[in-house]
Specification:
five-stranded mixed sheet, Translation Initiation Factor IF3, 14 helices, Rossmann fold, single chain, binds zinc ion, alpha+beta
């Protein structure tokens, strides 16, 4: 990026979503692309990393409250370990990066750069679990993994190395493991809805699209403004397949040896991509106050003769907000005019702006402006630290409502192959339809349109009529399927 490049966003979110997204990410100071020859990798800048840290803190607190401890496992996995669970090998084989040399010496056994860590964590869980008293066992690691996909880089959405957390647990029974799977899915959903202002859909993946070796893969899906779905977090009930492959067994109350039931669950920085994509606009980044590194920016507006009083008033406001634990920035730079500052902080996504000029000082007021829609109101100087909390709630509610409306408007029904193709082709979004469970009935949608079944809602959330038939083949339907194009 040239140093002379203009400050503002030049692409349009509506007409050129991909280019617009890349521009927002770079100009809002979130990430850069890695050097040539390293396509697929990005440099996460402090402003981008701060957002990831907020997601991390939110989830980490939830995990710890529900019995999870953090641990850390090596970046590399011996090939023989990876091969012990055959579905993992087949599922990840084309995307695994291999280390063949240490210094100048060829290794006796190749080491995989972890694409996911079941194969290195499970053998140790097997050592740690002896009896039913050792269960449940729950570990999580915050780490990066590498999947060598040959696709265009899209920061946070598609990168060869990505940051994530992966939780791994072992339980006595199938039902215990299922409860764990859903607990984590609930926590992902609540992180999206309560921190990122993004409503999600939840359900399970079709059998042919499960995590390799899993009994059930559950997912939360978020709809992006371009009509595509993002797989926003997944939680897998692994059944006993990993326990059997890696010997995670325990002696039960009758001293019988049993295979444990395991789960794994992961959420990556794709959540950050969804956050940026969902709320931002043609002026730049838009962030909910819950996660914004600066929740309020104060822009003083002065002439030479009013500078001193305006600035001193603004500093008092800043101090009061800081004392109340609010993240606030006072932009007192003399070399830039207020208009320039407005644009710059809009680009960076600060949710609430305070404008303070001589009139505000005289009337003991503050002009408060909301980033998402520019709505401007006056607040009394007195009690501003409490009043601003209401503004945060309002901004959050506006962002959530817009995303919720987009989701509600973009779930459509269809009851034939032609109608599914036509509806997604024309509008994007989700098309829900009764489905027989057969992969071939997905293929006839996937091939012409690259839309697939992103999830099937749980029966409890959305039950299917007894007499429903698959809209594609006319056989008895077993599930409701949500088709969508996806990231
Ligand atoms: Zn069918």
């Amino acid at each position: 990026m040239s140093k002379n490049q203009e400050l503002g966003i030049t692409e349009s979110k509506e007409h050129n979503t991909g280019e617009w997204y890349a521009e927002v990410v770079q100009k809002a100071g979130l990430a850069n692309y890695a050097p040539e020859g390293m396509s697929g990798f990005i440099i996460t800048r402090p402003r981008g990393y701060a957002l990831w840290e907020s997601i991390q803190q939110n989830l980490d607190a939830k995990f710890k409250k529900t019995g999870v401890q953090n641990a850390y496992f090596p970046l590399f996995i011996p090939e023989s370990y990876l091969e012990r669970e055959k579905d993992i090998v087949e599922g990840f084989d084309p995307e695994v990066a291999w280390v063949t040399h240490g210094g100048h010496d060829e290794l006796e056994e190749r080491l995989a750069v972890r694409p996911t860590s079941e194969s290195i964590i499970a053998p140790y869980m097997a050592q740690w679990v002896r009896s039913h008293r050792d269960l449940p066992l729950r570990v999580n690691q915050w780490a990066s993994v590498v999947r060598w996909e040959a696709t265009d880089t899209k920061p946070f959405f598609r990168t060869k190395e990505f940051l994530w957390q992966e939780g791994h647990t072992a339980h006595e029974t199938h039902d215990d493991a299922w409860e764990e799977t859903i607990t984590r899915l609930d926590q992902y959903q609540s992180m999206y809805e309560d921190l990122l202002a993004i409503p999600v859909l939840r359900g399970q993946k079709p059998d042919h699209d499960k995590f390799p070796g899993a009994h059930t893969t559950t997912t939360v899906e978020a709809l992006m403004p371009d009509g595509k779905s993002v797989q926003a977090g997944t939680s897998h009930h692994l059944g006993t397949s990993f326990a059997e492959a890696f010997d995670i067994t325990y002696s039960d109350e009758d001293d019988e040896i049993q295979a444990a039931h395991t789960t794994s669950w992961g959420l990556s920085w794709r959540s950050l991509g969804a956050l940026i994509m969902t709320h931002s606009d043609d002026q730049g980044l838009v962030l909910p106050p819950t996660i914004a590194p600066e929740q309020v920016v104060i822009v003083p507006i002065w002439q030479e003769d009013t500078q001193e009083e305006v600035l001193s008033y603004a500093e008092g406001v800043k101090k009061e907000l800081e004392d109340a634990g609010i993240r606030v920035e006072l932009d007192a730079r003399e070399q830039h005019n207020p208009g320039f500052k407005f644009n710059e902080w809009e680009l960076k996504g600060v949710p609430v702006r305070f404008e303070i000029g001589p009139y505000e000082v005289a009337d003991e007021e503050i002009t408060v402006v909301h980033r998402p829609d520019g709505e401007s109101t006056k607040e009394d100087r007195d009690g501003i630290a409490e009043a601003v909390i209401d503004h945060f709630d309002e901004v959050y509610a506006k962002l959530y409502a817009t995303a919720e409306e987009n989701l509600a408007e973009n779930v459509r029904e269809a009851d034939s192959r032609e109608e599914i193709l036509g509806t997604i082709g024309q509008h994007g979004g989700y098309v829900k339809t009764p489905w027989c469970g057969d992969e071939s009935c997905e293929d006839v949608i996937k091939e012409p349109l690259s839309a697939e079944i992103v999830m099937c809602p749980f029966d409890d959330d959305e039950a299917l009529d007894d007499d429903a038939v698959c809209s594609i083949c006319g056989e008895q339907a077993t599930q409701t399927a949500y088709f969508a194009k996806n990231y």
